[in-house]
Hints:
This protein has 212 residues and is mostly helical. It has 9 helices and 3 strands; from the N terminus they run H-E-H-H-E-E-H-H-H-H-H-H.
Amino acid sequence: xDERAYAIMMRMTIHPLFLPVLFSMVLYGNVSYYALILSxxxxxxxxxxxxxxxxxxxxxxxxxxxxxxxxxxxGGMSISPRKQLIIAIGGPLATIGCIAVSxxxxxxxxxxxxxxxxxxxxxxxIPIWPLDGGRMILSLILIFxxxxxxxxxxxxLSLILITISVFITFILLPKTLFLLGLSLFLLLxxxxxxxxRKYRFxxxxxVMKRLT
Length: 212
């Protein structure tokens, strides 16, 4: 990894939503499990970062989230959908790599490590914005069917599914407190994307015309 990648690693931060989870694990003595989770999330984000470098897209910073992370890319919406797709795939590929090497680890570490990777992968491939699965779907829409109506349908479906998740996790409180917080965070992300959907689409359509 070159100096630029190392600089991004040094600028990784943890989102405040994730801090209560880490604190509770340390409080109850699950430090080793906390270390596995944090290292798994970092490896997942390294996958995105390496994919961005392969696409020659500069990564400004990375924020570790409970489900993975958010990376800020230079160029934002001007990045081509194909590059966005490759970058979105990078994280799950890194997690799959961790799953592949887990049998080589010490049995005491291998089982919890594998479980963490499977949960992380399962969450991230859910086709809901802004998860990796959702970013892949949106990139594919922009590549093959760049129509604002299709994007609106997709974001509407994501909004409905997350709203249902918020409702269910609220009913099941207090056991689902963390999931409720995560669902509310994703809901805000989708609402923000919905607000700027037409501007995003118009900008990306303009950029795509310039590239063709």
